[in-house]
């Protein structure tokens, strides 16, 4: 059996000295945000005493790819393969009768800000935001489950505002509910195993159950429990669950909000809603993910997008080995594609197909699989050694952009691809020379005995 909770991973971090306990009282108004920002890398931060709340807060849990792998119990170099395996071999969830997350139950009316230590993140935002809530909903037409993450702002009492892009599946389900004249039931799980967070971010089709992918990541079905007041199931080992509804016709102006590029954006109205029941563990821990251009926020998208894009590109171009969506590119806008001996033109095809599959992508570099795409130095070397600007540059002006792109004009942007791969004739007379190395026998002998030197 796998420990499907967040706290098992936290215990391992603390044993390894990789979780920092903060004993002094902290305020949810910008103080937690400041600490998480100043300590974006390194140990997770555990706030034992949050002013006005009995619950502690944990943040910066998943701020590196190494942590993702550690949470799944694998080596970092196996992370991509684990994601591919989960996508190809999903495991359905298991329904359980009792769950730690339902040990304590609060029925409305209540004040959410009194029950939960939800941080205020940035100065110009109008309220406190739940940022690590995995939202479960059901398609009003098909009954199929959808699992995702969206920001939820507290509006007073049990009121919430959900900031959801119109192309997201949750927004589509809300629109289906609106057309049928009823609210959309939702459940929000906070404080989850990394498999739940990562699975919720996979780019899959509407109707595909992300909890099946979670099971693939865990190696066993994720345990779900039926909610108390809505017809939905949630992770049994989460810390907190909010049960309620979205009102698709109730639009609330959001104003300034942070986004992964690091800037404030103004998206217009979000969807109003109401939380009517809160359940949680007896000693619940509130998980917060620092939004904006922060490692944990960017990586959750980057790892999941890279995994699904790898799968989709391989279906059309077998030479593709792996796609890395980079953290520096905000976890959304830049990608490096690794290919094995691509044929002429295949690199450009991969660039164009990747941009078509993931609208967010703006800059894509293609390299061969002798390059470690997690090493920016090697990627840059490949551009210096293998990229012919007059032949290998792809410039696509006026392409439809995502609303999150910081440079879009009227929702269009110029997209660029760079193909830095070898081609037939490279390394022969008049081409690029063979890579310089010591004699293979000497090099291998020294490698085996390197610790002796």
Topology diagram in text:
Blueprint: H1 7-15, E1 19-22, H2 31-38, E2 44-47, E3 57-59, H3 65-72, H4 79-88, E4 94-96, E5 104-107, H5 112-115, E6 129-130, E7 134-138, E8 145-149, E9 151-156, E10 159-163, H6 169-179, E11 184-190, H7 194-200, H8 210-218, E12 223-226, E13 233-235, E14 240-253, E15 256-258, E16 264-266, E17 269-280, E18 286-288, H9 295-316, E19 320-325, E20 334-339, H10 346-357, E21 363-368, H11 376-386, H12 389-392, E22 393-400, E23 412-420, H13 440-448
Helix pairs in contact: 4-8, 4-9, 7-8
Describe this structure in words.
α7 packs antiparallel against α8. β1, α2 (31-38) and β2 (44-47) form a beta-alpha-beta unit. This protein has helices at residues 7-15, 31-38, 65-72, 79-88, 112-115, 169-179, 194-200, 210-218, 295-316, 346-357, 376-386, 389-392, 440-448, and strands at 19-22, 44-47, 57-59, 94-96, 104-107, 129-130, 134-138, 145-149, 151-156, 159-163, 184-190, 223-226, 233-235, 240-253, 256-258, 264-266, 269-280, 286-288, 320-325, 334-339, 363-368, 393-400, 412-420. It is globular. The mean pLDDT is 95. It is α+β, with helices and mostly antiparallel strands and 453 residues long. The two termini are 44 Å apart. It contains 13 helices and 23 strands. The strands form five sheets. Strands 5, 6, 7, 8, 9, 10, 11, 14 and 17 form a nine-stranded antiparallel β-sheet that branches. A five-stranded mixed β-sheet has the order 19-20-21-23-22.
């Amino acid at each position: 059996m796998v420990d499907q909770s967040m706290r098992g991973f936290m215990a391992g971090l603390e044993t390894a000295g990789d979780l920092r306990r903060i004993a002094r009282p902290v305020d949810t108004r910008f103080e937690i945000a400041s600490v998480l920002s100043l300590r974006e890398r390194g140990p997770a931060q555990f706030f034992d005493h949050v002013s006005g709340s009995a619950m502690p807060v944990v943040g910066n849990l998943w701020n590196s790819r190494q942590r993702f792998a550690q949470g799944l119990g694998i080596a970092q170099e196996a992370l991509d393969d684990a994601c591919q395996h989960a996508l190809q071999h999903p495991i359905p969830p298991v329904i359980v009768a009792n769950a730690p997350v339902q040990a304590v139950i609060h029925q409305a009316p209540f004040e959410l800000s009194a029950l939960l230590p939800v941080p205020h993140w940035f100065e110009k935002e109008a309220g406190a935001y739940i940022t690590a809530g995995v939202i479960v909903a059901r398609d009003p037409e098909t009954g199929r489950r959808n699992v995702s993450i969206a920001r939820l702002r507290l509006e007073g009492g049990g009121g919430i505002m959900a900031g959801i892009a119109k192309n997201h599946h949750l927004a589509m389900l809300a629109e289906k509910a609106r057309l049928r004249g009823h609210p959309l039931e939702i459940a929000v799980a906070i404080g989850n195993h990394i498999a739940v967070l990562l699975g919720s971010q996979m780019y899959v089709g509407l109707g595909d159950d992300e909890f099946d992918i979670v099971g693939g990541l865990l190696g066993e079905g994720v345990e779900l429990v039926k909610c108390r007041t809505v017809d939905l199931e949630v992770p049994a080992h989460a810390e907190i669950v909010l049960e309620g509804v979205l009102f698709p016709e109730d639009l609330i102006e959001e104003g300034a909000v942070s986004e992964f590029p690091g800037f404030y954006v103004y998206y217009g109205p979000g969807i109003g809603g109401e939380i009517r029941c809160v359940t949680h563990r007896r000693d619940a821990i509130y998980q917060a993910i620092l939004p904006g251009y922060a490692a944990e926020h960017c990586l959750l998208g980057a790892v999941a997008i890279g995994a699904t894009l790898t799968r989709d590109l391989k279906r059309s171009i077998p030479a593709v080995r792996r796609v890395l969506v980079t953290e520096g590119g905000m976890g959304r806008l830049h990608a490096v594609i690794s290919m094995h001996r691509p044929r002429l033109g295949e690199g450009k095809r991969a660039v164009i197909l990747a941009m078509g599959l993931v609208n967010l992508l703006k800059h894509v570099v293609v390299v061969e699989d002798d390059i470690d795409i997690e090493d920016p130095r090697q990627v840059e070397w490949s551009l210096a050694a293998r990229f012919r600007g007059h032949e290998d540059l792809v410039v696509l002006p006026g392409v439809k952009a995502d609303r999150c792109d910081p440079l879009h004009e009227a929702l269009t942007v110029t997209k660029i691809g760079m193909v830095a791969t070898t081609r037939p004739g490279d390394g022969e007379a008049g081409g690029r020379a063979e890579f310089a190395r010591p004699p293979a026998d000497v090099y291998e002998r020294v490698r085996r005995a390197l610790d002796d030197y």
